[in-house]
Every structure is written in C-alpha cells, then in structure tokens.
Amino acid sequence: MKTPAALTEQFRSQGLKITPQRVAVFDALHDNPTHPTAESVHSAVVARMPTVSLRTVYQTLNDLAEMGEISRLEVGTGSARFDPNVEEPHHHLVCESCGMVRDLHVEVAPDLGDDVPDGFEVAGAELVVRGRCRSCADKD
Amino acid sequence: MKTPAALTEQFRSQGLKITPQRVAVFDALHDNPTHPTAESVHSAVVARMPTVSLRTVYQTLNDLAEMGEISRLEVGTGSARFDPNVEEPHHHLVCESCGMVRDLHVEVAPDLGDDVPDGFEVAGAELVVRGRCRSCADKD
DNA sequence: TTTATTTCTAACAATGGTTGCAGATTGGGT
DNA sequence: ACCCAATCTGCAACCATTGTTAGAAATAAA
Ligand SMILES: [Mn+2]
Ligand SMILES: [Mn+2]
Ligand SMILES: [Zn+2]
Ligand SMILES: [Zn+2]
C-alpha cells in the first residue's frame, strides 16, 4: 500500500474526496503487519475519531481493495482480514487458536500441469499454513 | 468419508442415534465431488424428505466434520463448502465467477524452513488456486 | 469568499450464513 | 410396548457485511 500522503494524492486525482475519516483509515493500515479485520481497523480509527462508523471503514477498505492498494484475505477465522502488503508476493500462516495471521515468504510454484482443466484461466494461488502459535501452545 | 453404511455403524458405536435425516445427509455427501454448501446438501436431502430442516443438516455436517469424516472449506465464496474426500490429500481450484470448486491433485511441499516462527506447530497447509473456469470464460 | 456541485458520512435497516434454544418427537435398549 | 436420552424442527438470535438516504462536508466555480 502506498503511504497515506500518496493515497491522498491518488484519491484526489480520481475525483474522490479526502476526508479525515479516510485518512484515519489510511493511517491505521500503513505499515500494519497484523492483517486486521474491519472491526479492528475501526477500533484503531475510533480511538482518534470517536464518531467514525464501521460502515465508513468498510467502504474505505473496499475502495482500497478495488484500487489494489490492499488485499482482502479469507483465512477461515470468521471475518475478512485486510493486508496492506501488496508489494511483496507472499502467503500466510494462521494460528487456529488465536487467529493470528503472519506473512510467510515461501515460494509456492506448484506445477499445476495436468490437473488444471483445459480452459481454466489461473489468476493466482494462495497458500494458508495452519497450526498453533507458540504462545497458544504454551498456554496448555 | 466412509460409506453411509460404515457411518451408520460408527455413529451407533458412539452412542449416537441413526435417524433417517442423518442417513439422508450421509447419502447426499457420499461420493459427491461438488464441495456442496450446507444449503445445497439441504436441497438434495429435501428432495427425498421434504421436512428435513436446514438446522439438522448443519448439525450433521458439523458432527461429521468433528469426527474428521468430512472437511469444511472456506474458499471465499460466501458460504462454507463441505468436502467428503478426506482420504486423499489434495488442494482446490476455485472459479471466482461461478463458485465452482474442484480438486487439485498437486504436490505442494513448501520448504517452510526459516519463515515459520520458532515454536509454531504446523498442522497443515491448503492451497487455493483462483481463476475462471472455461464455461465462465466462454460466457463473455 | 460565497455559492454551487458532487461526494461522503452516520445512522439505521436489511441481508446471508450460521448457531442457540425450547418443546415436541423418536430411536433403540430394556 | 415402554422409557428416556438423543434428536428434530421452527424460530429467534447472531455475526459480518452491505443497502439506503438525508444531511454534512469537501472541492470547484464564480
Ligand atoms: Mn500478508
Ligand atoms: Mn476437495
Ligand atoms: Zn495463537
Ligand atoms: Zn465458473
């Protein structure tokens, strides 16, 4: 994801308006490695601007995802996670106990070869490695 | 997943009762390669037993998943998909246009090596290949 | 700066998928 | 056939997300 300043520029150049609510969402996402849910982005934003609605956070997240500035992940933890790291191709590691999501910089170059039906246009592949993180394992 | 007959045996041996509703769900799943949603399992069941509730279908699917007889997939198509093929380790191919899910028998042996944080217990890895199936591509 | 245009926000309602609950029903051992 | 724990149904509640819209705010024009 671009910096909040660069995003401000980009939004304006597309005829979109810069509101303090949007900037607050940009700030909450910038350099955020936690793969937050919409809810947790909202919490972070509300800490500074108590009136911002969850609806507005969703709207901005969707806008950013449509522009390709963030990506939406569905890792089976109930709600979607948002990832500002779109520059660096990577996969994910998920703790099934606490829901933590971490980047996984492994190469997955499956030889899809024969098993992809003829005519299927592959757009991308995502690997999710599941397990239990250390702090969760230590808990019992 | 075991055969409906074997599941009947297994349920009984665990003190669970065999009801026609449950058997209908077993039948709907047996050798079903479509990765159905709860809703579509329900449709199939209702075709033969019109009074079976969606609640009961969910209940049985959850029971089977807990026993490891089927697996629950979250591939980002809105609702969960259920997969009776737990014998053969495999991954999935998803059409982002129509929601079709197909088995993908590729080897994904990521060298997780360095990138897994110390102490993380890996339980498994799932690859989802996304794209567009032929019939969807042909449509436009 | 004032006004006009256009977009955005907040609040609330609605949706789709899934689960919790209570009371009626039933499987299966006796 | 009887009994009772297990199960089923129908419905309400729940959660994550999206639709709606009137009024507020940001930008453009004057
Ligand atoms: Mn990531
Ligand atoms: Mn499968
Ligand atoms: Zn954990
Ligand atoms: Zn398709």
Structural notes for this entry:
- The structure is a homodimer of 140-residue chains.
- Chain A has helices at residues 4-13, 20-29, 38-48, 54-66, 134-138, and strands at residues 71-73, 81-83, 91-95, 101-104, 121-132.
- Chain A is α+β, with helices and mostly antiparallel strands and 140 residues long.
- Chain A has two domains: 4-83, Orthogonal Bundle (Arc Repressor Mutant, subunit A); 91-138, Dna Ligase, domain 1 (2-Layer Sandwich), CATH 3.30.1490.
- The mean pLDDT of chain A is 94.
- The complex binds manganese (II) ion (2 copies) and zinc ion (ZN) (2 copies).
- Residues 35, 83, 85, 90, 92, 103 of chain B line the site of one manganese (II) ion.
- Chain A binds a DNA duplex (30 and 30 nucleotides) through residues 12, 15-19, 21-22, 37-39, 51-56, 58-59, 62, 78-80.
Number of strands of chain A: 5
| Low-pLDDT residue intervals, each spanning 5 or more residues of chain A | none
As a percent range, the share of strand residues of chain A is 15-25%
Q: Specify the overall morphology of chain A.
A: globular
Q: What ligand molecules are bound, each kind once?
A: manganese (II) ion, zinc ion
Oligomer: homodimer
Radius of gyration of chain A: 17 Å
Q: Supply the number of helical segments of chain A.
A: 5
CATH topology value of the largest domain in chain A: Arc Repressor Mutant, subunit A
Number of domains of chain A: 2
CATH superfamily of the largest domain in chain A: Winged helix-like DNA-binding domain superfamily/Winged helix DNA-binding domain
* Largest sheet strand order of chain A: 4-3-5
Q: Estimate the helix proportion of chain A, in percent.
A: 25-40%
How confident overall, as mean pLDDT of chain A?
94
Largest sheet of chain A: 3 strands, mixed
SSE order of chain A in H/E notation? Answer: HHHHEEEEEH
Q: How far is it from the N-terminal to the C-terminal residue of chain A, by CA?
A: 38 Å
* CATH C-level class of the largest domain in chain A: Mainly Alpha
Task: Write the CATH architecture name of the largest domain in chain A.
Answer: Orthogonal Bundle
Largest binding interface between chains: A-B, 39 and 39 residues
